Amino acid sequence: MSQVLGPRELAALERIGDLMLPGDSDLPAFSQTGCIAFVDDLLRSMDPKDRDDVKTLLKILSLLPSPLLRAFVTLCQTRWTSTLRMIELGLKGLVMSLYYSNKTAPHYSGRKPCDVIGFSLQRL
User: Fold this and answer.
1) Does 123 fall in a domain?
2) For position 124, what pLDDT does the model report?
3) C-alpha to C-alpha distance for 13 and 21, rounded to whole angstroms
4) How many domains does the chain fold into?
5) Is residue 122 a part of any domain in this protein?
6) Which residue, 9, 43, 88, 110, shows the most beta carbons closer than 10 Å to its own?
């Protein structure tokens, strides 16, 4: 699926995405859209050092059971330290960029997030 991330790292990113974007009656959950299939598009454009740091972080987070992962994501959102703030910005940037790219897996047949919120880019 990814040429950059391994299966454990992808699974961790998908779990984090579902914590940040669990879905509701209108919006799909992060994992439902299949947008994670396009993660390499984002990762290839990253500085190699940053990409390696993301991979390492995801590998570590993949070891956490769901309650601890949820606690970690919540802790990052409290921004106690600049390191947690940077982790939150990185993870949120990756998750939100994938989700709101409006790219979905071929198996996804629901409404795309940008369609639900009524967002559309138009050329002027």
Assistant:
1) no
2) 65
3) 12
4) 1
5) no
6) 9
Amino acid at 113: P
The pTM of the full predicted model, rounded to 2 decimals, is 0.91
How far apart, in whole angstroms, are the C-alpha atoms of residue 88 and residue 106?
29
Domain of residue 83 covers: 7-117
Cα distances (angstroms) measured from residue 84 to each of 67, 78, 92: 18, 8, 12
> CA–CA separation, 14 vs 99, rounded Å?
11
Amino acid at 123: R
Of 70, 64, 45, 43, give the one whose Cα is nearest residue 54: 43
Rounded CA-CA distance 65/71 in Å is 10
Are the C-beta atoms of 70 and 35 separated by less than 8 Å? no
pLDDT digits (tens, 9 = 90+) for 8-61: 999 999 999 999 999 999 999 999 999 999 999 999 999 999 999 999 999 999
Spell out the alpha helix ranges (H) of 1-124: 7-20, 30-33, 39-43, 48-61, 66-78, 82-99, 113-117
